[in-house]
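Title: Prediction job returns without error message
Component: structure pipeline
Severity: low
Priority: P3
Assignee: unassigned

Description:
Job completed but the reporter wants confirmation the result is attached to the right record. Sequence as submitted:
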Amino acid sequence: MKPLVERTGQLRALDRLLAAVLAGKGQVALVDGPVASGRTTLLRAFAEHAEDAGVVVLESTGSHAERMLPWGVLNQFGHGTSFPAGLLEDLPPSLADGDTGSGAPEPGVVRVFDRLASAVLDLAARSPVVLGVDDVQHADALSVRWLLHLVRRVGSARIFVVLTDDATVTTTHPPFRAELSRHAHFRRLSVGPLSGSGVGELLSAHFGETEARGLTPELLAASGGNPVLVHALLEDHRAGGAVRRRGYGVAFVSCLHRGGPDLTQVARAIAVLGDGSSPGDLGRLIGVDAETVGGLLHAMTAAGLLTGCGFRHPVARAAVLDDLGAQRRVALHRRAAGQLYERGRPAAEIAPHLVQAGEATEPWAGGVLLEAAGQAVLRDRHRAAVDLFALAHRSSADDAGRAAILSRLAHSGWQVNPAAAVRHLAPLVVAAREDRLGHRDRLVLVKQLLWHGRVDDAVEVLGLVRAAAADDPGRAAELRDVEQWLTCVHPPLARRRRPPARQSAHQDTLLPAKSDPVLNAVAELSGLLTHGRTGDATARAEQLLRDGDLVRTASWGDEATLLALLVLLGADLPGPAMLWCDRLRTSAARREAVTRQAILTAAQAEIALRQGSLADAADHARAAMALVDPTAWGVALGLPLGSLVTAATRMGDHDDAAKHLTHPVDDAMFTSRYGLHYLLARGHHHLATGKRHAALADFLSCGETMRAWGVNMSELIPWQASAAEAWLSLGNQDQARRLAYEQLAEPDVGRHARGLSLRVLAATTPVEQRPRLLTEALDLFEACGARYEQARALVDLSCAHHEAGDGRRGRMVFRRAWHLAETCGARPLTQRLLSISADVGDPSTGPDPGRHRAVLTGSEERVALLAAMGCTNREIAEKLYVTASTVEQHLTRVYRKLNIKSRKDIPADLSANAPVRPGRG
């Protein structure tokens, strides 16, 4: 038997009443409480006490399923060995006609009642008797009338009638309760859900006080103190900690069934309509008046099954729906949808019921589904949108309408999982071929086909779009935008290329009527990115990133966001680009736009790579390929995969890089911009592992491809500097110098690309000229936050100083290079430094740093340390929580005190020994 918690008072009261019975005073007790509140457990515990005292116990249980069975409860007494045999045979099947249970019964019925009561009284004369009836509210009418007949005669008999009842629901036997309450020896005892201390006491008996204290709030919230549910949750916790359907869920449904079908029906209505539904709504769904529903809600709340008008745990709702069965569940959802539509409720409330019903045959259903799906897309609830669009597509009879719906379905499905959207592409190509797909849907289809490498289908649809746009200015304008995008991302497919217009910051762009502004932004950014003019586009890119809500819900939104981030990166602004990435990715993570989140994470990897945060770059790339499976990335896999390979190579994890290069990629990737990222990464891996000719081939392939395409993206794909490095490794300085000058001669060359070329060029010049070129490269890398490249340039500069015979400068730069390489996690660079440490000085040794601390204040020392490590003034200001102007003033004093001219002259031993202590935080 389950332990009695918070029931000992009631049990003692029953024992006292039993003592009075043993003394010859008959008693009647009614144990009242909500469903599953422990009435039965209390009655059984008392029956054991009575049997131990030598009392005859006759037990019976009322059942809703048997309440129409005449004499059902009374017949159960006959199962006991103490009840007179044969007494219950030949009982009349019903009361006399017209006897409703109120008023005096007819004489024939009284004679039957009297005969049965006399038998119990005779039994009590020999031994005290306890008649226990559980759930008397479900007893049949004849048994109830007989119980009242007996109660009137127990005054001086040793009979104790103990009944349990649920007073929270409307009684089916009001005269019975009224008559009981008038009995001279009647007592009413109440039980209810367990309190928090009761739940804690129960848990302590199983888990100990410490664990019970931690579990009590959770179990109390899920059970409402209902003893049946508390015990079920206790077992669930023992089985693994999670709330289980076959544990808590089964117990919850069992409680409902014990309360009767009306209680179960209301719970099912809540499960279908949702928490917080009004009694009126629930009643209309199941055909019951609101007042009755209100009473049943009160009963379930009193029992701890509900809180207000909602379930206490999602498993409860799931269990109720499982118990409902598929057919009845569909019927209820269909009825709910119809009722909500008739009452003019919003589409977002109606549509989920249509989805659950699995059909939308009503004339109004299609419009409701599409409206709700559109709202779901705006809220980035793409999984819900997929279900809504799918049902709308199945239910639509219009071919053109079905094609448009399928296009939207494919877009929402792509946001959740690009691989799942592939199956929609073939039907959409057919629809485009049969002129059942709109102009903009065709343009989006081209983008989706190219993402998945289905180039032939994309070419076919693109041809249809070009033909249809020949005589339509509006379509022609949007087609030109797509052509410009193709020039940047899939150049072999672009038919016409237009140079990007240079506009002033205040010049407005006039768009054709009904033009897609996001697509136009995609075209503008693509043009500037393609022709290496990213510096002209930074303001436009940041404006587009600020327009997050407009962009993220557009069909071209993800492409626009990625291009804007790449523009900032190409303009040597990795810091702002990363800030935007962090902000947008955090927003995407709160929504259901998994693909958007993956694209932003891949962009983070590329930006972190530029910043020299190699471990972060690798982590971001892996995260991107975890969010969207590599097989679903299509041709865009080149972006995260290229970042991962490059990061692993720069960290010296060559086996890891080689493993990722074995990942199968689509051949179509190499006809897209993403193939260039992949080729560049593979080339650097080859170069780092001694495969110089293979590396050169990859780098030159990048250049030849871009020339063939007529594009210049050297800020993102610095192939000239990379190929020049490969030529240097092969001993061909002339070719390396030619490529470096070629890069430097380009108009609008960015700081990062210029710095790369200067570093390579320095390797081809006499040793005395190298410091000047490397110093300029260092300034450029510092200005654009490229720490890995700073470290490489510092290594070269240290060697150059040493070869020129300036050992002091060589050692000073050596230490800066060492610490910056360590910060980046560039193990090959630190290993190279170690290999030359005997010549230029070991990083762990040096002059006594006390001489610097003697002249520098703490603030000056912190600023000098960060400057020596390669931080920009803005980065120093952010780290120390001061202004950039303050940093400049501190550096000026540092230069004067140490008698140096620039940050490059800051003693290396200062950075090796001085700690960084931020101003606050």
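Comment from assignee: result matches the submitted record. DSSP finds 48 helices and seven strands in the chain.
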